[in-house]
Amino acid sequence: MATVGLSQAVRSTPAGALPASMVPHPREELFSVLVVDDHPLLREAIAARLAQMGAGTVHEAATVAEARARAQATGPCDLAILDLGLPDGSGIELVTELRSHGWPRVVVLASSDDPYAVRSAFQAGAQAYLLKSASPVVVTDGVRRVLEGGVYADPSVAPVLATGTRVAGTDNTPRELSAREVEVLQLVADGQSNKEIGEELSLSALTVKSHLSRIGRKLGTGDRAQMVALAMRAGVIR
């Protein structure tokens, strides 16, 4: 179970109602937050911690559908904190949606340290990736870093980002793949044809073929199945 301050799990209240000693780093202006997670106790714990940090308003949602409704009703908040494993849809897609609708800061708070999930979250526009198993100090530090305009990765997933999108080829030499090449390989792994990949990414089938040729040269193989296996082994695709 998550350790994000569950001992402090109470409904959030305006920061002004808290004793000054409970606000470790008061901010000059209150900020608004949307918290999306399907576990009520965790949402309450996060809301309480955010209130201590200076959150004036904390909206809550348990599903992608609720989050969309909240986002439409409130407009962009200063910050969104969301889980990736939501019951009715993709948290990654929700990150993309919020960012495309003007939400300035998105923090992912997830159970998984899967390399693909970590990279996908940042590629979708998240500014931080935190684990639910993290200590309250780490979560607070990550959120504060994002509020100050920075980015943050949980210490246990930081090495994943340090390796970028490098995949060891058939000669065991790591090769760097571009974000687009990773997208193409993921769709190949999903069983899509060049035509279907092109439709998904708004590319011609010929362009998709060119991407696969470049990937093949980098990895030392023209076999689609082997390219996918090498990328999966490196944790670049799922």
TrEMBL record:
<dbReference type="InterPro" id="IPR001789">
    <property type="entry name" value="Sig_transdc_resp-reg_receiver"/>
</dbReference>
<keyword id="KW-0238">DNA-binding</keyword>
<dbReference type="GO" id="GO:0006355">
    <property type="term" value="P:regulation of DNA-templated transcription"/>
</dbReference>
<dbReference type="Pfam" id="PF00072">
    <property type="entry name" value="Response_reg"/>
</dbReference>
<dbReference type="InterPro" id="IPR011006">
    <property type="entry name" value="CheY-like_superfamily"/>
</dbReference>
<dbReference type="GO" id="GO:0003677">
    <property type="term" value="F:DNA binding"/>
</dbReference>
<dbReference type="GO" id="GO:0000160">
    <property type="term" value="P:phosphorelay signal transduction system"/>
</dbReference>
<protein>
    <submittedName>
        <fullName>DNA-binding response regulator</fullName>
    </submittedName>
</protein>
<dbReference type="InterPro" id="IPR039420">
    <property type="entry name" value="WalR-like"/>
</dbReference>
<dbReference type="InterPro" id="IPR000792">
    <property type="entry name" value="Tscrpt_reg_LuxR_C"/>
</dbReference>
<feature type="modified residue" description="4-aspartylphosphate">
    <location>
        <position position="83"/>
    </location>
</feature>
<dbReference type="InterPro" id="IPR016032">
    <property type="entry name" value="Sig_transdc_resp-reg_C-effctor"/>
</dbReference>
<feature type="domain" description="Response regulatory">
    <location>
        <begin position="32"/>
        <end position="147"/>
    </location>
</feature>
<dbReference type="Pfam" id="PF00196">
    <property type="entry name" value="GerE"/>
</dbReference>
<feature type="domain" description="HTH luxR-type">
    <location>
        <begin position="170"/>
        <end position="235"/>
    </location>
</feature>
<dbReference type="InterPro" id="IPR058245">
    <property type="entry name" value="NreC/VraR/RcsB-like_REC"/>
</dbReference>
<keyword id="KW-0597">Phosphoprotein</keyword>
